[in-house]
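Late entry, written up from scratch paper. The run itself happened at the end of the previous shift, but nothing got recorded in the book at the time, so transcribing now.
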Amino acid sequence: MGNCSRSPATQLSSTETRQVEAESQSKDESEVNIDLEHAKQEFEAKYAQSSKQTAKIEDFQLETTIGTGTFGYVVLAKYENRSLALKIMEKHVIVELGQVEHILSEKHILQAINFPFIVTFICAFKDNAHLYLALEFASGGEMFVHFRNMKQLPEDQVQFYASQIVLAFEYLHNLNIIYRNLKVEEILFDADGYLKLTDFGFAKVVQERTYTLCGTPEYLAPEIITGIGHNKSVDYWALGILIYELTVGVTPFQDEDPMRIFTKILQGSFNIPGYFASDIRDLLSKLLQTRPLQRYGNLQNGVDDIKNHPWFSSINWESLLKKRIKAPYIPEPDKHHYETYEEKELIHAETELYPTEFDSF
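Output as recorded:
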């Protein structure tokens, strides 16, 4: 019989090791870039189309209210043996508040996007008095509720959550979509502990800049307040606010008076806790930069400046995107993670309200 011997393990020099790592990272980045290009083509095709109304309210078994808002409320509902979040909006309220354009934009954007860390659109329909958006149900509840119980989160958990927001923004901004609604109330936990961004009521497709004043006061970027025009960099300002809030327990420009909040934001000065390490201090200084042209995410390297920052050095972006990293918090299964609300009766109208305004919904 022949003598089989094992070849000695090949030892790579440090230079060769770095080269292999660089090639691997380049391959991952190339794959992500290809995915982003494909995502843009897919979005543009879907965004240009109007989704057909294939459902009606009678098809849904309404269970319990899981959220409320200015225009309506969100109900946990069953549809084709599946649990969904059904957003019910009143036409007359939307028209009275001058929010028709925002609602139509939300629907058209949601029907055309598809990303792991954003709620999935199922269908949209309307009746005489209401507009309906059926979305996937994130069973883990709002980050707001979890965060309220925790007061503040360990920094490694904040990194895990913030990195998902970074990838969601990278996806949206690649499609020329500004989100403009980041806050703990609009971040949901899926069953696996990963995040889902929801409520695209302020989202907008913008090629260059826009001038609408919208958003939550404590998260508004200076350029939104001054009205000089803003672009996607306002989302990265809001990311800085979120990272600070999750780590500290309060927002950096918090005040009971909204006007004083605006003043603090325009001044751009905030308290840095003594326990903050140098990396998070540096990242926040670059995200909460009052001059948009100097803000991370809005420079020549775009979002890569954020992804390559030392504070995110422990994050493997490809593994995160594919959900290979175990989440630090897994919502307890078979438990209702949403707050309790007073149930509201769905009142129908005999004639169609505002048919022209909502023709494209």
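The longest strand covers residues 61-68.
(Scratch paper discarded after transcription.)
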